[in-house]
Give the backbone structure.
Amino acid sequence: MKPAFLELDPAAVRVPVRFAGETLMLPEGANLATALLAAGVTVLRHTPVSGAPRAPYCMMGACFDCLVEVEGVVRQACMMEVVEGLEIARPHEGDAHDTL
Amino acid sequence: MSSDYVIIGGGVVGLSVAWGLLRRGLRVTVLDGDDGSFRASRGNFGLVWVQSKGMNQPRYAQWSQTSAAAWGDFAAELGEATGQNLGLEQKGGYDFHFSEESLQATVEKYEALKDKLDGDYPFEVLGHNALRKEEPHIGASVVGAILHHQDGHANPLRLLQALAADVRRMGGRVLTGKTVTDLAKPDGFRVTCADGTVVEAGKLVLSAGLGAAQLGPKLGFKAPVRPQRGQVLITEKLPKIINRPSLIARQVDEGGIQIGATNEEVGLDDGVTQPGLSGLAAEAIAAYPVLGRAQLVRSWGALRVLSPDGLPIYEESAEMPGAYLVTCHSGITLAAAHARFLPDWLEGATDAPDLEVFGEARFS
Amino acid sequence: MTRYDLAVIGAGPAGMATAATAAEAGLSVCVLDEQPRAGGQIYRDVERAAARRGDILGTDYTQGAPLVAGLRAGGITNLAGAVVWAIEEGFRISYTQGGAAAQIEAGRVLLATGALERPMPLPGWTLPGVMTAGAGQILLKQSGVLARRAVLVGSGPLLYLIAAQMVRAGTPPLALIETQTRADLIRAARHLGGALRGWRYLLKGLGLMAEIIRARVPRYTGAQAIKIEGEAQAEAVTFTCRGRAHRIDCDTVFLHHGVVPNTQAARSLNVAHAWDAAQQCFAPKLDEWGQCDVDGVLIAGDGGGIGGAKVAEIAGQLSALHVAGELGHIDRATRDRRAAPLLRARRQEMAARPFLDAAYPPAAQALAPEDATVICRCEEVTAGAIRGYARLGCLGPNQTKAFGRPGMGPCQGRYCGLTVTALLADANGQTQDETGYYRIRPPLKPVTLAELAAMDAGAPGQAEKAAE
């Protein structure tokens, strides 16, 4: 199946990023939430209330549905840019004692 | 008379008393404020707490113990009636210390209190290493803790909701959005509200929190209560990090870490300040360094309802017999006592608890 | 701590125009915006994207570039990527930038916090693949990313703009499912006189519509019983239209039924707000300069009431002139002389608004969601739960917050606040003003405890707790 999103002019410079244990090649400097969607990622997190899957909704830093965990801190993917070597996890789905 | 009791104040204190009276088959009307009222019931820390209470008045320590011991049955009954899980957990709580001196000084005070309570004050002192076994995330600067086995915590908002639901279920009449403007006792009590509502009842309970300062004197009470602000923080929902609650932090049943609280004499200002937030955050990180990476999602200020000595006030008006002032700072801890035992005192039952030390005579 | 004459929160059209006008008058200005590059949502990333995608996005977008360039003028400190989380008396503004917290002080604060999409709680709206129409635009503006199989749902001119942009980019939407009805259009007709004075907006709308029709994008109007289906992500939209049931398979759903002022920062300062019946939202009470009831706090742009980018720009200039006048940088006569054409232009720009508000009202289904629909995305609270709390005596949203947690999650009520107020107003037979809104407090955006603690003046762990 084709990814739900397409890039009009795919960026020339792509860098490796890890998301939930998988390596993705994303456009350097791109909006992280957008880049994940364009790479075919559909679920960024599961809610702490019911475990329901969520993905970017507002893309402007207001809804907090695109939360991801980077270096132990839960942040909004739509407010971050792609940097080489980012280690991204779905929030609190790793080992609680080490990652928070 | 439409009601046996009119209760002014529909917070946890007023509703706990109402619940207890309704269970005895009495007819109760509760007058509650609106969305913007100062409500300690929705801003409190949620501890069901014994240690540190009544250091100068053992009866208060005892009353807190009585309530803590009754909380389990109370929560079970209320939970069953409403389908609410009140999140009660009573497996002890900590008082953390960052210096040996302060730990030692507090232990000495607890020992003295324990003697006055005939030895019923079950606490133990944990050094840093013992504490780390209980709380793996504890910070290096915590030298030790007092673990008091009668302490615990609950979900105070679900308590409030369950009481609101069950008081109605049992036939209690709850009138919301009311501001009491006038109180009179021509025969029974006659309470008039700003919107013209009039409620008549044989007896009256004033449990209006800070509102008692204004309404109390109209009933012959001194009601010397003042606001004291506590700022509280809560983080994003996290996996289990904290085992037992403390005065610094607790992990609520929904997962967030609640951090509190400041003690500020700022009148009726329930705002939040950056210095307040920063101070609490620093203290929480000192206790649990891993919290440094946690996101603060919400904070609030709430106003404690404090008497001059911090103890509850239970008083029947000499001027208007049948009017009772019921006010306290620890409405959550004392909810079970207010629901189970205070109605006996209001009804003048022979086995009613002795609450004399909590009367207003102590302020003269 | 650096002190400025004026702090501007938000670098969209209102904030950028305020900063440029104020700095030109000689004020020291600090602009704080959480995005890495200025422009706001309407001109998001315009300096980088205009050259690459200007043809698709149109001149309404590319005209934002000079405003962004204006921020490089002398007298303006532009703090990009600065997330403001507290504004206190003084004014002391706390923000996080690059993972560290910092503060500035300012004599006055201008809030240019823009708009949010009106919450649109429909069954299935929390599924991955469901986004706001504004989000769809941001994907395109900032990154040139388009949804291959998208359906647009709701009402309002923005839907046509996005549809037309998607057509131009070669991936037209699968369908436009619109909730407004013919009756709405007839009701709107009485505002047509005013709308004709704002003819440019109407002409633009007709042009977009022509593009959509040429591309043969199916349109359904008066859609009801809309539902987004799917297990782990959106798979289809179902709805009824003139009594017939429809189902359209898709991967992406873009929702929109208008935008509303983002009032979080203003509310945290206890600025008085009132219900705007025409725009179906709360807006701060402002005078013509954007001054609210809190001394030293001004509000410009969509955060003060929806008017769009041009109106925002004008409002920013007016606020800046007012502050410059108050601080003695220009005299009153100069202020009024310069304001006169701006006030005229604003009236002109607002002329089409009543027509558009009436012709494209919010979707009734999303204003009064059925009981099972989740209305608080963060805490997953349903409309039925809110109605239940009303039966337990909750008169306002701060009471339901305590009872069922709506508004307690990280978005802090941004996407449930208006819904909760509407549900309570309906259940209690009160007006929206009587029902009120969430009490908003710092942090306006989440901040890590470490960032907070780094600003602590005292040594950690020394504070002794009061015993009682």
